[in-house]
From TrEMBL:
Its main location: cytoplasm. It comes from the Eukaryota. Its EC number is 2.7.4.3. This is Adenylate kinase isoenzyme 6 homolog. Keywords: ATP-binding, Cytoplasm, Kinase, Nucleotide-binding, Nucleus, Ribosome biogenesis, rRNA processing, Transferase.
């Protein structure tokens, strides 16, 4: 049951994973297939100024987790969202009905990230994050294990299969009884 006593009629899905694993592509295709709203948290942080400045070493905004959660609360309570972000441990557990961790082979991920201009500490940190399955462990420790699933995301075929699997799941989803 969602906060405030209302039951969602549409699910909320979190799609997480190391940068370069295909989150945004997967979420966009899934939103098209299901009619759920794609919420790209990185874009939300930029457009709404939900950050505490810029990190020069990692070349990204320093996200203000409290501001992000405040901004998203009403939307999440209503349901029908696919949240796209490379972290997951600060979102309230009650928000999500399904947590998907996308994973990519390290050599493929390395090529994707270098083509995006990642280098130095930013590249190394993200590759290590994938090697050590940091986000899968974070998801499993932050949410009920029965709602967390890891999906391989190495190719266009993988992404297509993942969208099909997640669309089927969204179509049969029913709210948990309290």
């Amino acid at each position: 049951m969602a906060g405030g006593g209302r039951t969602r009629t549409r699910p909320n899905v979190l799609v997480t994973g190391t940068p370069g694993t295909g989150k945004t592509t997967t979420c966009s295709l899934l939103a098209d297939a299901t009619g759920l709203r794609h919420v790209n948290v990185g874009e939300l942080v930029k457009t709404k100024g939900l950050h505490d400045g810029w990190d020069d070493e990692f070349e990204c905004h320093i996200i203000n987790e409290d501001l992000v959660c405040d901004e998203m609360e009403d939307m999440m309570e209503g349901g029908g969202n696919i949240v796209d972000y490379h972290g997951c441990d600060f979102f309230p557990e009650r928000w999500f009905d399904h947590v998907v961790v996308l994973q990519t082979d390290n050599s493929i991920l390395h090529d994707r990230l270098t083509s995006r201009g990642y280098m130095g500490a930013k590249l190394t940190s993200n590759i290590e994050c994938e090697i050590f399955q940091v986000l899968l462990e974070e998801a499993k420790s932050s949410y009920p294990e029965d709602i967390v699933v890891a999906l391989q995301s190495d190719s266009v075929e993988d992404i297509s299969r993942n969208v099909t699997i997640l669309t089927e799941w969204a179509n049969i989803w029913r709210p948990r009884s309290s």
